[in-house]
Design brief:
2 domains, globular, 3-stranded antiparallel beta sheet, 3-stranded parallel beta sheet, alpha/beta, 31% helix, TIM Barrel
Length: 244
């Protein structure tokens, strides 16, 4: 469940309804009481202050959450049109890390795309393991890939990463057989090839690449690199064209 900050003035305004904060907190408590709560998600943004995330972690411990996943505003989904003015900056992300470090012994602190001050290799892609079920029953192999494909700049169809629907039939076999890396080859550009960390690097999350890719040809055909927008990673898709 998502709490984008831990105040009505941040979460509520970010969600477009100040009353949504109290409603979400109450809903989290109900899920926890029913033993259905696994973790909390949060999107730091310019409406939040770092201390809110310590309060959020306190709340997560109180309701028995296993993890708090913090992921800054991206250029897809809610952030497609607002990232430039609403995204938390690097200083804010570092401050959030500093005030939440003390919860590391009680929560799994999952920090997505925080400043890499320790210059660690990038993590890999968890598509097929991090599932998302929409209210209409659609099951996405990864919420971030699905949000990215639905961004206006992406050439990929909106259902590119939908593997089935729980209302229309079983999805277990499709999920068990899903492998992002069988469909896409990551890190095949010259930058990655010459990097000393290539052997230990997971090449990061491809969602941001998918969201801003501009191709002259449709995703079902092969496109040349000259048709692609500038991006920090390179992904080739042997059956569905080329990703940069």
């Amino acid at each position: 469940m998502s709490l984008d900050g831990f105040r009505a003035a941040s979460h509520g305004k970010f969600r477009g309804d100040q009353s949504s904060f109290a409603v979400t907190v109450a809903t989290v408590r109900r899920f926890a009481a029913a033993t259905l709560l696994k973790g909390l998600l949060s999107t730091p943004n310019m409406l939040t202050v770092p201390d809110e995330f310590a309060d959020l972690c306190e709340f997560a411990v109180e309701v028995g959450a296993e993890y708090v996943l913090t992921n800054p505003l991206s250029s897809f989904g809610r952030g497609a049109k607002s990232q430039s003015r609403m995204a938390a900056d690097a200083a804010q992300m570092r401050a959030i890390r500093a005030v939440t470090d003390r919860f590391a012994d009680r929560l799994d602190l999952v920090r997505m795309r925080f400043p890499n001050d320790e210059e660690k290799p990038l993590a890999g892609c968890y598509a097929g393991k991090l599932l998302y079920v929409y209210t209409n029953g659609d099951v996405a192999s990864c919420p971030y890939l699905d949000f990215a494909a639905r961004t206006h700049a992406s050439p990929y169809p909106a259902d590119e990463f939908i593997v089935g629907n729980i209302y229309t039939g079983p999805v277990t076999a499709a999920l068990d057989g899903y492998s992002f890396h069988d469909l896409y080859t990551v890190g095949s550009n010259s930058t990655y090839g010459s990097c000393a960390l290539t052997s230990t690097c997971g090449k990061g999350c491809p969602a941001a690449v998918i969201s801003r890719l501009v191709m002259a040809a449709p995703s079902s055909s092969t496109a040349s690199a000259s048709h692609l927008s500038n991006a920090s990673a390179f992904y080739t898709q042997p059956h569905r064209g080329l990703l940069d």
